[in-house]
Amino acid sequence: MRKIWSWLRCLFTSALVALVAVLIVEAWSAPRTDPWHSETLHEEFTAERASEIASFEDYLKLEERVFAELDEKVYAEVETGPDFALFRYSAGSAADPRGRDPDWNRSFDWPVGDAKGGVLLLHGLTDSPYSLRALALTLHARGYHVLGLRLPGHGTAPSGLVTLKWQDMAAATRIAMAHLASTLDGKPVHIVGYSTGAALALNFALDALEGTASPVPASLVLISPAIGVSPAAALAGAKASLARVPGLRELGWLQIVPEFDPYKYNSFPTNGGAQVHDLTSWVTQRLRTWAQAPGPEAFPPTLVLKSAVDATVSTDAVVDRLLSLLPPDQNEIVLFDVNRFAVKSGLMLDDPAPFTDRLLEDDALPFEVTFVTNAYRDSRDVVARRKAPFSNAPSPGESLGMAWPRGYISLSHVALPIPPDDPLYGQGPPPSADALFLGDIALRGERGLLKFPEDWLMRVRHNPFYSFLETQALDWIESANRNAAAR
Q1: How many CB atoms sit inside 10 A of residue 54's CB?
Q2: Where do the H-state alpha helices sit in 219-371?
């Protein structure tokens, strides 16, 4: 037995040494970092600074200071001119967000006279308030006080995510919700959360139900919600810790690529993955605990909008770790299928059909399912098949009057909240030939030529069925708002 244990120790030690060696080689061969990867912005909000922030106005003042620091430490250090026309951090470039009006990297607060209620919009990791811009505009036009929060570490430089803690984002969420509540005189407040923002929305709702935050949201709308992430994300924390060792700083990055998107980081810090993993694990644990002993106040009615295929977050987790734990008969998932006309199951690595079939056939599910899919296998037209809670009899399909565009095989994690006419990520470029466009780009050539991964070009960045998503979200909020106001 001693020989076996000795052999196992040697095997473990050898494996550990090999892993460290691989990481060292990876660090030394990684692309060099630039000022936007390395500069620390000391004026950024953190949970530790929450005691200094007495109001959302204070949060905005601090935000002004961090953007001034960004100008000084990053923009001032980057060259300008034609060779840098697509560099986000080159002053005056096509990708410089400061030349856009408004700069959607910043928080926005849009009150309205005699508001119906309030809506807080929470974007995703590496993202900015731009991602929920279209919903914000429509909600405001419908009479809601809308607040789009720039989460800490976002909208500035990717280096802001190197030291970020998910508790910083949660603390900022509490400040924004308190501000909305203070302006609405008891009227309902809702949260729309996208990706990581959805996990933050759930965390806040649980805080409010436990009495440690206020108000309890009147409803939740969760788009591509980060409920479960890749198990590999659990290793990100250890890798981020190794990045503190001199000479291994590049291990702090899962991806270093050029920054040409004015409203989203292309580079991805290791710590970002670690923080999302920790946040989703914490929220999942809290949801399970709450489900075992729910308090006297009802959980907010929750609408989930998601693509059946999602390379970023788990669809199964949305069902098993969220919707199945919530009170019955008040929640819904809208799931967008792959384009069955354009892609055959034999060509897919992982066909979502078994999962979607389960959703439509399982009569134990306590939530409503709306499944957006092809009307027929040989048609690009789409229908919505609806199934009530505790039913295994979905409707034949309601025509949406929409069809898959040619060449599209599915939606994606990043596509859902973006309309086809979006001037940056949409289906076609804006009229101005000088405007930066990152949407439906078709480039052909040899692999390995570009400085960013080729799969970046393939990933769809807008939702051809956005109008249906928007209608579902607006109807959900309006219904919850009426019910809350009537109580």
Answers
A1: 10
A2: 236-242, 270-292, 315-320, 353-361
Q: What does the CA dihedral 316, 318, 320, 322 come to, rounded to 10 degrees?
A: 170
Closest of 196, 204, 316, 323 to residue 268, by C-alpha: 196
**What is the DSSP secondary structure assignment for residue 229, as one 8-state letter?**
B
Tokens 């250090």 correspond to 77
* DSSP 8-state code for residue 33: P
Per the DSSP assignment, residues forming a β-bridge with 371 are: 335, 385
What distance in Å separates the CA atoms of residue 269 and residue 243, rounded to the nearest whole number? Answer: 10
Residue 27 has pLDDT above 90, yes or no: no
| 161 sits in which H/E element | none
Q: Quick one: which of 408, 435, 451, 413 has its CA closest to 126?
A: 413
Q: Count H helices and E strands in the chain, helices first.
A: 12, 12
Query: Can you give the C-alpha Rg of the chain in angstroms?
Result: 23
Q: How many CB atoms lie within 10 A of CB 116?
A: 19
Half-sphere exposure of 161 (CA within 13 A, CB side): 31
Q: pLDDT tens, 441-452?
A: 766 677 766 766
* Predicted confidence (pLDDT) at residue 15 exceeds the cutoff of 60: no
* Rounded distance between C-alpha atoms, residue 78 and residue 266, angstroms: 17
Percentage of the chain exceeding pLDDT 90 = 72
Q: CB of 147 within 8 A of CB of 120?
A: yes
pLDDT the model gives residue 6: 64
CA distance 276 to 281: 8
- φ and ψ of 90, to 5 deg: -100, 115
DSSP state at residue 76: G
Return the structure tokens found at 281. Answer: 């694990």
CA 98 – CA 92 distance, rounded (Å)? 8
Amino acid identity of residue 255, one-letter, is: Q
Q: Which residue has the tokens 């769809």?
A: 460
DSSP characters over 91-135? TTSTT-GGGSSS-TTS-EEE--TT-SEEEEEE--TT--GGGGHHH
Spatial distance between the Cα atoms of 161 and 135, rounded to a whole number of angstroms = 26
Give per-residue pLDDT as tens, 194-247: 999 999 999 999 999 999 999 999 999 999 999 987 665 555 555 555 556 555
Those residues whose C-beta lies under 8 Å from the C-beta of residue 351, and which sit 6 or more positions away, are: 338, 345
Handedness of CA 265, 270, 273, 274 (dihedral sign): negative
> In this predicted structure, which of 251-255, 347-351, 407-411 has the lowest mean pLDDT?
347-351
Tens-place pLDDT, residues 144-177 = 999 999 999 999 999 999 999 999 999 999 999 9
Q: What is the model's pLDDT at position 263?
A: 97
What is d(CA 167, CA 146) in angstroms, rounded to the nearest whole number? 23
Residue from 111, 108, 105 nearest 121 by CA: 108
